[in-house]
Amino acid sequence: MPRSLRVNHQRIKYVKIALSENGYPTQKSLAYETGLSIDTISRFLNCKPVLYGTFEEICRKLNLDWREISTPDFEPSSLKKSINTQELKRNKYQDWGTAVDVSVFYDRTQEMALLESWILQDRCRLLTVFGRGGVGKTILAAKLAKQIQDEFDSVIWRSLRQAPSFDEIITDLVSFVSNHQEPKPDINKLIYYLRTSRCLIILDNLETVLDVGHTGKYRSDYQEYTELIRIIAEVEHKICVILTTREKAVEMNFLEGANR
C-alpha cells in the first residue's frame, strides 16, 4: 500500500463538485472542519500527494470514495536511490525508554491521520496530546511514534512520571542527540544538535512537573521547563517533540498554532 495518495487529475472536477455540495465554499472551511492545515487541503485539491490516512479522512468529509478519485504516489523508478535498508536502520539511534507496548491498539484512524499529517506534512515542532487520565494519551503517542519513526534520524522516549529535574532531562537529551559526546546539561548544546538532525522526542506525563491546584503552572523547582517548551516551539530546528499531559501548561495557550 502506498504511503501517500493524490487526486487523479481526471477526477478533480468531481472533487470540486463535492466541495460545493457538502457546504465547503473555501479551503479554509474544509480545513476547519477536518482540523487539517490549509496547506494540506491545498495539496489535496491541487492533486499533490498527501498521507494515506489524511486522504481518506478528507474524502469522508466530502462523501467521496477515495478509491475512485485517487492515484498512488509511487516514486518514478528513474528517481529511486539505491539504499541498503538494513544499513539505514543501523545508522538510526533509538531509545524507547519506558514506552508502552502497542501491539494491541484499538482503531483510532482519524486521530492518527490528523497527528501524522501535522508532524510529517506541516512540520509541527511541538505537539501536545492532552486529556484526562485513562483516555489513552500514552498509548496513542507511542503508536504514533512507532508509525512515523522511519521519518526521523533518531527517536527518544522519556517518561516524566518520576518528575526528573530540568538538569536531569536536559543532560539525558543532550547526551542522546550528541551520541553520548556531551555529558553536561547545556541547553545551548541541545539547540545546536536539534538543528543538525531530524529527531523525534516524546516526553510522557508532563503533568508531574506541574503544580497541582495552580492551573498550568510549574512546580517551584521545575520553572526551567517553561524555557525548554518555548525553545522547542519557537526556535528553528529539525525535531518534533510530542508531549502527553493531563494538564496543559500555561505557555501552551500562547504557543498553540505558532509553528503550524
How would you explain this protein's 3D organization?
It is a single chain. The protein is α/β, with parallel strands linked by helices. The protein has two domains: 4-72, 434 Repressor (Amino-terminal Domain); 85-255, P-loop containing nucleotide triphosphate hydrolases (Rossmann fold, 3-Layer(aba) Sandwich), CATH 3.40.50. Helix content is 40%, strand content 13%. It has helices at 12-21, 27-34, 38-45, 52-61, 66-69, 85-90, 109-120, 137-148, 166-177, 187-194, 225-234, 252-255; strands at 4-7, 50-51, 70-72, 93-95, 126-130, 154-159, 199-204, 240-245. The strands form two sheets. A five-stranded parallel sheet has the order 4-6-7-8-5, with helices on both faces. Strands 2-1-3 form a three-stranded antiparallel sheet. Helix 11 links the parallel strand 7 (199-204) and strand 8 (240-245). Helix 2 packs across helix 3 (38-45), helix 4 (52-61) crosses helix 7 and helix 9 packs parallel to helix 10 (187-194).
What is the secondary structure topology, with strand pairs?
Layout: E1 4-7, H1 12-21, H2 27-34, H3 38-45, E2 50-51, H4 52-61, H5 66-69, E3 70-72, H6 85-90, E4 93-95, H7 109-120, E5 126-130, H8 137-148, E6 154-159, H9 166-177, H10 187-194, E7 199-204, H11 225-234, E8 240-245, H12 252-255
Parallel strand pairs: 4-6, 5-8, 6-7, 7-8
Antiparallel strand pairs: 1-2, 1-3
